[in-house]
Amino acid sequence: MTRTRPPFQPKKLLLATVSVAVPTLTGFLSSTGRVGVILPLAFLSMAALPFYIASVGNYRPKGERWMLLPALALFIGSVFPAGIGGHSLWLTAFGETLHCRVDNIERHSSSRGSDSFSADLDCGGRKLTFFPTNFRSVKPINTEFDVVVDKTGFFSSLEPDQVSWWHNLLFLTGLLINGLFIFLVAWLPVREPLPLVAERAE
Predict the structure, then answer these.
(1) What 3-state class would DSSP assign to 66?
(2) Distance (Å, whole) CA 79 – CA 38
(3) Angle at alpha carbon of residue 156, lines to 150 and 160, rounded to 5°
(4) Which whole number is the average pLDDT over 37-64?
(5) From CA 101, how far away is CA 35, in angstroms rounded?
(6) CB 28 within 8 A of CB 41
(7) How many helices and strands (H and E) does the chain possess?
(8) Where are the transmembrane segments (predicted)?
(9) 124 close to 144: Cβ distance less than 8 angstroms
(10) Residue 57: how many CB atoms within 10 A of its CB?
């Protein structure tokens, strides 16, 4: 058996990179709560999946399709570190911490699942609506706590312990793993059988 790297195919690498960037962007912007942004990106992510699988799968010979299953897992999994880590990273850069008091709790009915709750906050005279994330529940009325608010107003607020270096690292790790996987697909040698003449000579 001989080992040679597959020929360099920049178009397929570019297509794979752009395709996997779509679910990453979807996860990142999911923390904005803006349905008009999230839904089109979600549909675009589903449309990008076959292009990603095709570009990665066709980069190597037919007998070297080991990467298809991890490619699918990484594509789908890109949403979660981008959503959790990206939210924290954004608020690390553009957030400010306010001390707030819960003035009121509102219940939001849903016909598709369980009801959700939000809290009306008074943050030193500044009024905010806070939606708990990551399975957290709203705090009782008159509870005082800190909230990290996006100065740009684009992303939703988080509690301080949800904005940390390890949350930020989660986002960066997701990007690194995707980049490393595409690199390995292009760089790892392909096993090829020796010519019949060469095998007899040995």
Answers:
(1) coil
(2) 12
(3) 70
(4) 89
(5) 28
(6) no
(7) 6, 6
(8) 12-29, 35-54, 66-84, 165-190
(9) no
(10) 17
Q: Calculate mean pLDDT across residues 128-157.
A: 93
| Of 33, 28, 37, 35, residue with least CA distance to 157 | 33
Domain boundaries defined on the chain: 2-89+163-201, 95-160
Residue position matching structure tokens 């037919």: 62
Query: Rounded to whole angstroms, what are the CA distances from 103 to 107, 109, 140, 142, 176?
Result: 14, 20, 9, 6, 42
Maximum C-alpha span of the chain: 87
Structural contact between residues 127 and 156, judged by C-beta atoms closer than 8 angstroms: no
Measure the CA–CA gap between 100 and 142, rounded to whole angstroms: 9
Cβ(87)–Cβ(148) below 8 Å = no
- Put simply, whether the predicted model's pTM sits higher than 0.85 gets the answer no
What is the residue-averaged pLDDT of the chain? 88
Taking each helix axis as running N to C, give the angle between helix 79-94 and helix 10-29, from 0 to 180 degrees, rounded to the nearest 10. 60
pLDDT band at 90 (very low <50, low <70, confident <90, very high): very high
Q: 191 by DSSP, 3-state: which?
A: strand
